[in-house]
Amino acid sequence: MNHKLSIALLCLLFTYQNAIAEDSVWQTPAIEGVGKIHPLPHATHQPSKNQTYKVVFWLTKGSDDPKKMNFALDSVARAINLYASAGVPSNQLKFTVVVSGSTTDAVLNDTHYKEKYGVDNPNSPLIKKLIEAGVELLACGQAVATHGYQNNWLNPQVKVALSAMTTSIELQQQGYALVTF
Fold first, then answer.
1. DSSP state of 155
2. What is the pTM of this model?
3. Is 80 exceeded by the pLDDT of residue 6?
């Protein structure tokens, strides 16, 4: 075998092994294909498998590219995958997501998202997966009105809350931890 062919084959093998290694590093154990995590079963501060986790995620930042999934929504999927990776049963995750500000666009139905951005809402599949995972998705009613939207322009799986602020306060009074994006 000539020297150039040997180097080319070694490079190809190295690239293939790295691709396999990278795929095995990132996983999505509970929400397939989104919220990629790197399992670390021996890391410190592992979630307890016996505790219920109550979290309100307050999302305020829209996507820089309307053709891409919203990073903050993907982060909620990541949280679910992290807890699943640590062995916490899904029925012990009480997650509520409240969108406001520029994140409000992320929960528009496909028709109204397409009218605004010229593409179907890239968040719709993730919204469906989050709902199926037991996440409650809420849109701030004040943000919906501020943007000039009507409630029926939202993804039908998303409920309208009085406001993100009052919902966040109410849930914290009930023992929910607040996470903001």
1. -
2. 0.86
3. no
pLDDT of residue 24: 74
pLDDT band at 2 (very low <50, low <70, confident <90, very high): low
| Burial readout 109-124 (b: 16 or more C-beta within 10 A, e: otherwise) | beebbeeebeeebbbb
What residues contact 132, with CB distance under 8 A and at least 6 apart? none
Q: Which two structure tokens, joined as six digits, stand for 163? A: 């406001």
pLDDT tens digits, 85-115: 999 999 999 999 999 999 999 999 999 999 9
**Cα angle for residues 110, 114, 115 (degrees, 5° grid):** 120
If you count DSSP H runs as helices and E runs as strands, how many of each does the chain have, helices first?
6, 5
Kindly report the number of other CB atoms within 10 A of residue 16's CB atom: 10
Radius of gyration over every alpha carbon of the chain, rounded to an integer in angstroms: 20
Cα separation, 109 vs 127, in Å, equals: 11
Residue 108: DSSP 8-state? B
